[in-house]
Write a structure and sequence with these properties.
The complex is a heterodimer of chains A (70) and B (346).
Chain A: E1 2-7, H1 14-21, E2 30-36, E3 41-46, H2 53-62, E4 68-69
Antiparallel strand pairs in A: 1-3, 1-4, 2-3
Chain B: H1 3-43, H2 55-83, H3 87-108, H4 124-135, H5 141-149, H6 156-168, H7 171-194, H8 201-230, H9 236-246, E1 255-259, E2 262-264, E3 267-271, E4 276-282, E5 291-294, E6 299-302, E7 307-313, E8 320-326, E9 333-339
Parallel strand pairs in B: 1-4, 3-9
Antiparallel strand pairs in B: 1-2, 4-7, 5-6, 5-8, 8-9
Classes of the chains: A alpha+beta (70), B alpha+beta (346).
Chain lengths: 70, 346
């Protein structure tokens, strides 16, 4: 399990954070996602043997946002 | 705040603001409902046009929301009544609401990252719980539960209205205020939720701009109200009303008519350097002008619907001005002590 932060510059409200956190239920290998509109970032704890950064970035894009790995 | 104003606020900015924050919750529940209806429709091999049953869950959601916020308004009003807010505390509350709304308006326009902190972020554990409930929702219990849980996800306008409910200092008024506001938010919320699947992000952005502009205007109005309640010499509404009053001949006398539209005369000229007793006169007056506040004298009185109430004023220096308003910060008026003692029929 690793913990990684992604910047999400195009969040516009706290509902965006909720939308991003819902990736927990979609992506395989994710333990927890905490997104913050205040900080415009998403902290994701996941199993890197099951999930790659690219897959996370693609899933975020499907939600309508841009993820930049930190 | 007038109940009609609360309703209209809900109907316009409240509906739009809530939509941005709470709309996603309801939409996800509805999406699940649509999915289920579609499976049932296809499974039955029906040849009729597919029509999901989403009106009822939306209504249950909105009903639960209305009840939950009415109870919340009651509790906030009860807290406000225990606190016994003075006019200065109310003024500070209005300032805070105004700054909060202006901050949110500026946030929506992306003026500066600091304005993002004007949004209260619910904890992830709570949003996670709500999200899972909405995902699993099939029964009417879920829309009811989600409608109730929206009290933990209030939008900026709702938060401002909650602060106003606190400021009423009355459980009943707080409950009625929140009821009016949430009732106002319901038509737009229902319409948009009903047609949610057809709404694109372009329309969401358009809504955001309308909300932002309205938040800025309303925020300025709240700050103006706070200025009136604190007895500040300058506020936008005070300047306008005083300029209007100065256009009329100077009014003297020892009584003030409290009407549906405020106080008459708006500027009353009184003798300086002597103790005075003037009268508030009400004649079937129903407006908030009945609840009069004179911040400089720490005087606050709820007048009868019809009657004459005496108001003792200690001697004031020549040229002194005492400002007063209703407890909602409307109808700014003033007493000007610029007459010689012989000039009135004391």
């Amino acid at each position: 399990m690793i913990k990684k932060t992604f910047k999400i510059p195009d969040m516009t409200c706290s509902n965006c954070a909720m939308k991003l956190e819902s990736l927990e239920d979609i992506l395989d290998g994710v333990k927890e996602i905490n997104a913050s509109y205040h900080r415009l970032e998403m902290v994701i704890e996941y199993d890197n043997s099951k999930l790659t950064d690219e897959q996370i970035i693609t899933a975020v894009r499907k939600k309508g946002y841009t993820a930049i790995a930190q | 705040m007038d109940l009609i104003v609360a309703f209209i606020t809900g109907l316009t900015t409240g509906g739009l603001g809530c939509l941005a924050v709470q709309g996603g919750l309801l939409t996800s529940t509805l999406a699940h409902q649509i999915e289920q209806d579609m499976q049932a429709h296809n499974g039955a091999g029906s040849t009729q046009k597919f029509k999901p049953h989403i009106a009822q869950p939306i209504l249950f959601f909105l009903l639960a929301k209305l009840i939950a916020y009415t109870i919340l308004g009651y509790l906030l009003g009860a807290v406000g009544s225990v606190l016994q807010l003075t006019s200065l505390m109310r003024a500070i509350l209005y300032f805070a609401i105004g700054i909060f709304m202006i901050g949110n308006g500026l946030r929506m326009f992306n003026v500066h990252p600091i304005f993002r902190y004007f949004v209260i972020e619910p904890p992830s554990s709570l949003t996670r719980y709500i999200r899972r409930k909405s995902k699993n929702g099939t029964s009417f219990f879920t829309p009811l539960l989600l409608g109730t849980l929206t009290i933990f996800l209030p939008c900026g306008v709702t938060q401002a209205m909650m602060a106003t409910a606190l400021g009423t200092g009355s459980p009943t008024q707080g409950a009625v205020l929140m009821f009016s506001f949430i009732l106002g938010t319901s038509p737009l919320f229902f319409s948009v939720a009903y047609f949610a699947t057809r709404l694109g992000s372009a329309i969401e952005k358009y809504f955001t701009r309308i909300v932002a502009v309205t938040m800025l205007i309303m925020g300025l109005v709240q700050v103006d109200t706070g200025l009136n309640l604190s007895g500040a010499p300058f506020s936008f509404s005070r300047t306008v009303s005083i300029l209007q009053a100065y256009a009329l001949p100077a009014q003297t006398g020892m009584s003030i008519e409290v009407t549906e539209n405020g106080y008459s005369p708006q500027i009353l000229h009184l003798p300086a350097n002597q103790d005075l007793t003037i009268e508030w006169v009400t004649r079937n007056t129903q407006s908030c002008a009945r609840s009069v506040v004179v911040p400089d004298l720490e005087y606050q009185e709820i007048l009868p619907v019809t009657g004459r109430i005496k108001f003792d004023i200690p001697a004031q220096e020549k040229g002194a001005i005492i400002r007063y308003t209703c407890s909602m910060g409307m109808y700014p008026s003033q007493l000007v002590f610029d007459l010689e003692p012989t000039e009135t029929n004391q």
